[in-house]
Amino acid sequence: MKPRDLTPFVINLRRDVERRAAFFERFAAAGAPFREPILFDGVDGRELGAAPTWISRGRVGAFGCFLSHLTLWTRAFAAGFAESRTPILVFEDDATFAPDFAERLTAALAEVPDDFDLLYLGGQHLTRNRPAPTVFSPNLYRASNVNRLHAYVVAPGALAKLIALFWRGDFSWGSRDAGTPSGFPEACVDHEIGRAVERGELTAFALRNPDATGNDWICGQAAGVSSSTGKRVDEKTWELPQDLKGAG
C-alpha cells in the first residue's frame, strides 16, 4: 500500500473554525504524500443535550465523538469505499505531525499486510494488565489495545466490522474494564475498538520507529480544549514505554 492509495478525511466541528485552520496549516507543513484531507462535519455533542449511560461518564462530547466516527465509517461504506478497495485515513482536527511524517508513513504502509483492519499513526498503547504490542516489522507493531482516534487508517473491509461492532445491540462494551487506567465503568468509542482488537475481532497495527530511541508515533494531539472532554490539555504523543520498544 502506498500513500496515494489512501483517501484522507479530517473530522471537525463546524463551529471550530480556528481548530480547522490550525489543522490545515500543520498538514501543509507536514509535506504529506497525498492530497489534502476532505473536511467532514463532526457531530457536536453540545447540541445533543445528553449522552447515554454507556458513554464515558455521560459526557456529551464523548458521545459526539462516537457519532462522528461512526457516521464517517457509515458514509464511507455507503459511498462504496469497501467495494473500491480504497482505505480511508481519518484525522481528528487536533492531530499533529512529526517532522518525518511523510517518510515514515510511506515506509510503514509498504509493510502493512493485506489482511489488516486498522493502522494507528498515533495513539496510546494500553499495557497495564494486558499484552504489550509486539514487533511485526521494522516500521510496525502488531497492536494489542490502543486508545485515541486522532490519526488512523481503516481498511476497506474493516468498515463493515466497525459499524457492526457498535450496532450489534447488546452494548456490553460499556461494562467495567479493570484493565483501563481510570477504572471507570463506561466506555468511549476508542476504548471499545481497543477491546475488540484485544479480543481478536479486529487486526490492528501501530507505527514503530526502527530506531529504538526515537519516537514511534508520527501523529500526536495538539494542545487546546478537548472536544470530547471539554478540558484543556497539553500536547501529547503517548509514547510506548522505553522498556517495551524492543519487545518481540
Q: Give the oligomer, counting copies of the same chain as homo and different chains as hetero.
A: single chain
Q: Kindly name the structural category.
A: alpha+beta
Termini Cα gap: 24 Å
Residue runs with pLDDT of under 50 for 5 or more positions: 173-185
Order of helices and strands: EHEHHEEHEEEEEEHHEEEE
Biggest sheet record: 8 strands, mixed
The level 1 CATH classification is Alpha Beta
**Arrangement of strands in the largest sheet:** 2-1-3-10-5-11-8-7
Query: What is the arithmetic mean of pLDDT?
Result: 88
Q: Which percent range fits the helix content?
A: 25-40%
Task: Explain this structure.
The protein is of the alpha+beta class and 248 residues long. The chain contains six helices and 14 strands. The strands form four sheets. Strands 2-1-3-10-5-11-8-7 form an eight-stranded mixed sheet, covered by helices on one side. α2 runs antiparallel to α5.
Quick overview of this protein structure:
The chain has 248 residues and is α+β, with helices and mostly antiparallel strands.
